[in-house]
Design a protein that fits this description.
Length: 134
């Protein structure tokens, strides 16, 4: 498991927490995000991610697989909301049934995806909400 960035003061780049149980996929996501200039930390499932967040890891966005052992991405989102955590979540899934479901508190990116799609999705979540025009 990668540790969170030592200090947010040393890095101006946003920090992304990657939560994925499949090591090969997790490594691909880490490489893509690091290559795009993001600071990245990782967790093997939702329980590990929640522990990092509870211990004070500061992240700007989470990329989480929906289906994982112990605690899946949906359960992670529920626990984060209980703690009033405003961190946006990009869900990733290899199961087509999840793509486009409205009951997840964030967008879903279907696996397999291209690194450019991942980076664009993360970038979109990091942009501040734009006020609606009248």
């Amino acid at each position: 498991m990668g540790a969170p960035a030592p200090s947010r003061l040393l890095s101006q780049s946003p920090t992304v927490l990657v939560v994925e149980d499949t090591v090969v996929v997790r490594r691909m996501v880490l490489r893509a995000l690091e290559g795009a200039g993001y600071t990245v930390c990782e967790a093997g499932d939702g329980a590990e991610a929640l522990a990092l967040l509870t211990q004070g890891a500061r992240v700007d966005v989470i990329v989480a697989d929906i289906r994982m052992p112990r605690m899946d991405g949906r359960q992670l989102a529920v626990e984060m909301r209980k703690q009033s955590s405003p961190v946006p979540i990009l869900f990733i899934s290899g199961y087509d049934a999840y793509v486009g479901q409205g009951d997840l508190p964030g967008p879903v990116l279907a696996k397999p995806f291209m690194p450019e799609q991942l980076i664009a999705s993360v970038r979109q979540l990091l942009q501040p909400a734009q006020p609606r025009s009248a």
